[in-house]
Amino acid sequence: MDRSWFQANNPEACPHQCDCPIQWPTALYCDHRGLADIPERLPDRTQYLFLQRNNITSLSSFSLTNITDLRWLILDHNQLQSDKLDQAALQNQSQLCYFFANHNHLSSVPSALPAGLEQLRLAHNQISSISPGAFQNLHNLTLLLLHGNRLQTIKEGDLKGLLSLNLLDLSGNLFSSVPRHLPPSVQQLYLSNNTLSGLDEDSFVGFFNLKYLRLSQCGLQSHGVHPQVFNLSSLVELDLSYNKLSTIPTVPTTLQYLYLEANEIQGLNMTSFCREVGPLSYSRVKVLRLDGNKLSYQQFPPDWVFCLRVLESIYI
Q1: Residue 91: which of 41, 145, 133 has the closest Cα?
Q2: pLDDT tens, position by position, 238-292
Q3: How far apart are CA 76 and CA 99, in angstroms?
Q4: How crowded is residue 294: how many other Cβ atoms within 10 Å of its Cβ?
């Protein structure tokens, strides 16, 4: 069926500013159109609404009023402002699973978000606070992106309700220490590009499922990193690249990927990987990056091959 014929004979079916692909009737493409507002009279069949890269500043309660089955709402690269975002516009979207509003001008995390959300992407805004109770009903949320914002702290209760959160990205904010009161369900925690004063022994206490931890470009120095801070038996990958570490911190023997490039490390101490070396006591590290340090193979201790016996790739 010809799209132009379909639209000409069904003027109510598709807003003139958008494209409605015949082969995907539940999708509405209104991206890259220079829109200042969300088009009126959106087709009630719409489940996937693409509005990225426009000039939309507000979201009113009437913007999506005739849509009841919306599942994806993409508003990346617009001009959305918190004081022009009517909370009811989102709260009433009971089927909404994915809400993307990266690269906007939001100053706080919206409140009254629909309970069915699974992914919330708010990276590269101006968020400095989390509205009270913003997450209290988001029991199904698995991914929360808040990197590239202005958060300095997370207060107790700010993230209350996030029972299923798997990935939390807080990189590129203004944290001076690892924020407390984070959901214990998190398996992937990204804190790169914050200026951390150090890591205490209890910085990651309670993260029984944490597998991937990224702390690159945080200004970390060895004297400020507690020897037992990474004593997490669930940890699989640890990124400490582009810091100011002079020694390799102690890591769990379960760790498989360790990134330490571009630090100031001058030696390889096997006790960082193996408390003792024996048939049953060895490191599970498969990939070790040490390039960009003050280190060479000649400085390796003779027993390193017995400790790092499953190593697949090493970069010096």
Answers
A1: 133
A2: 999 999 999 999 999 899 999 999 999 998 888 999 887 666 778 999 999 999 9
A3: 9
A4: 12
Confirm if 158 and 181 have CB atoms less than 8 A apart: yes
- What pTM was estimated for this model as a whole? 0.93
Question: Are 207 and 186 within 8 A, CB to CB?
Answer: yes
User: In this structure, how many other beta carbons lie within 10 angstroms of the beta carbon of residue 291?
Assistant: 14
As a whole number of angstroms, the distance between CA 285 and CA 175 comes to: 29
Q: How many CA atoms lie within 13 A of 267 on its CB side?
A: 8
State the Cα–Cα distance between residues 4 and 9, nearest whole angstrom. Answer: 9
Three-class SS of the chain? CCHHHHHHHCCCCCCCCCECCCCCCCEEECCCCCCCCCCCCCCCCCCEEECCCCCCCCECCCCCCCCCCCCEEECCCCCCEHHHECHHHHHCCCCCCEEECCCCECCEECCCCCCCCCEEECCCCCCCEECCCCCCCCCCCCEEECCCCCCCCCCCCCCCCCCCCCEEECCCCCCCCCCCCCCCCCCEEECCCCCCCCECCCCCCCCCCCCEEECCCCCCEHHHECCCCCCCCCCCEEECCCCECCCCCCCCCCCCEEECCCCCCCCCCHHHCCCCCECCECCCCCEEECCCCCCCHHHCCCCHHHHCCCCCEEEC
CA distances from 140 to 183, 206, 308 (A): 13, 20, 40
Residue 112 in tokens: 């009254």
